[in-house]
Task: inverse folding
């Protein structure tokens, strides 16, 4: 057990630096403009805004929240950043702010129940909310570290639309949304003093809000996490170019992080060629709408399943099963865990090497006075394995990032490699949930630390080369 943890810790703690890669981060020269801006963010300089789009890893904010905390502790807080409007899904609980939403809103999204037609206009957040009557309200209260001096709200102006009344500390502003033609529009309010709360109420209808944001323009970092649970990058194409362009113009990100790939890898069928087309198309689209903003592509993390149909959901080699902790009969010294087999190993050879075909050998009878059972490592009767599609997705991501000159972070490698999720779930301190896909708070903190470690190394290397 100690050996497996030591392997993973060594992988995480001693990243190497070359002319192209810093730890798991390759192509870091593409991030030079971001590094330069970040260096000036301290002490009241120009604030830096990081915008991350993705799936549940992003929406849950365990990783981005820990990353935000670390950056703001170092550079100062530039506010909470961009959020989906109101409470767009059950269980939504953003870090750093509390959000309220009255009845009377209809939710649209790029994926999930809100994706059914007719669907409202959608932007970066992947969600929009629509009210057809007066009096519908959303409100936001910021924690002390996320107080703001600039508030931005983006909505749809269109014929017959109503208005929004925005109230901050007794200062009200009316945002009229009636227009001759439908178009996205963002409204900004600035304040001399830091504020802690904002209320937005509809007058008339219809009114559609696509996102809102709070910033503090006195240096520091804002990190926006906008993700949709269960979504894939192809679903991001369901948002509207004009809405995304207007929001990007208003929110002015200095770095865009793309964090999809897990749901693609768990799909019933993964076609690498189709996924590559989607990836190239959406990166090209983001570049066209965002301009010269650097992009960091996060590779799909290690994640595991027992669903046998995902052994062959991509045209790649069948994944080798993972070794798991099992209870063994009490006898002799505890054997340290073997290394996890790689995908290049033959499954039958791996099972033969472990002295089994599909399950641990049966425990032998234990005398009444025997020692307590011990823990060993074996492949179980219904083994865990990374879906074949995850490897296919990751290979496409790495190739496209290199060819399109994006920065690419190898999330799986920086976790410790394939099947690392076993130890992250089974061993203390646990860092992943029991689904072997999602991270708990400790895991989010760990991933954020590893990512920032590589970014720090890359920033230093970029300044030398």
Result:
């Amino acid at each position: 057990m100690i050996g497996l943890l030591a392997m993973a810790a060594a992988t995480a703690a001693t990243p190497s630096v070359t002319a192209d890669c810093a730890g798991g981060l390759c192509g870091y020269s593409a991030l030079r403009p971001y590094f330069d801006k970040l260096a000036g963010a301290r002490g009241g300089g120009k604030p830096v805004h990081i915008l991350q789009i993705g799936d549940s890893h992003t929406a849950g904010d365990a990783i981005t929240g820990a990353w935000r905390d670390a950056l703001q502790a170092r550079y100062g807080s530039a506010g909470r950043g961009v959020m989906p409007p109101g409470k767009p899904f059950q269980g939504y609980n953003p870090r750093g702010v509390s959000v309220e939403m009255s009845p009377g809103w209809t939710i649209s999204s790029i994926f999930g129940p809100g994706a059914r037609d007719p669907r409202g206009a959608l932007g970066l957040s992947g969600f929009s909310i629509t009210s057809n009557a007066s009096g519908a309200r959303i409100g936001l209260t910021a924690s002390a570290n996320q107080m703001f001096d600039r508030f931005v709200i983006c909505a749809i102006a269109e014929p017959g639309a109503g208005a929004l009344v925005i109230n901050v500390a007794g200062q009200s502003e009316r945002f009229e949304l009636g227009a001759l033609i439908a178009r996205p529009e963002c409204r900004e309010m600035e304040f001399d003093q830091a504020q802690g709360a904002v209320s937005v109420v509809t007058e008339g209808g219809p009114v559609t809000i696509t996102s809102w944001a709070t910033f503090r323009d006195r240096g520091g970092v804002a990190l926006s996490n906008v993700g949709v649970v269960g979504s894939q990058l192809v679903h991001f194409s369901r948002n509207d170019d004009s809405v995304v362009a207007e929001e990007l113009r208003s929110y002015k990100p200095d770095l865009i992080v793309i964090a999809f790939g897990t749901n693609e890898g768990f799909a019933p069928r993964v076609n690498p060629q189709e996924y590559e087309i989607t990836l190239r198309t959406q990166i090209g689209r983001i570049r066209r709408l965002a301009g010269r903003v650097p992009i960091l592509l996060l590779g799909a993390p290690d994640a595991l399943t027992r669903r046998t149909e995902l052994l062959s959901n991509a045209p790649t080699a069948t994944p080798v099963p993972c070794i798991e902790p099992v209870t063994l009969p009490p006898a002799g010294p505890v054997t340290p865990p073997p290394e996890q087999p790689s995908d290049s190993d033959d499954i039958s050879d791996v099972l033969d090497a472990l002295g089994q075909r599909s399950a641990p050998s049966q425990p032998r009878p234990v005398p009444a006075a025997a020692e307590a059972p011990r823990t060993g490592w074996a492949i179980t009767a219904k083994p865990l394995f990374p879906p074949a599609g995850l490897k296919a997705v990751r290979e496409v991501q790495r190739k496209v990032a290199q060819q399109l000159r994006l920065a690419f972070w190898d999330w799986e490698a920086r976790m410790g490699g394939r099947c690392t999720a076993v130890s992250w779930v089974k061993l203390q301190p646990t860092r992943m949930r029991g689904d072997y896909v999602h991270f708990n708070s400790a895991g989010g903190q760990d991933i954020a630390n590893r990512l920032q470690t590589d970014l720090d190394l890359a920033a230093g290397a970029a300044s030398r080369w």
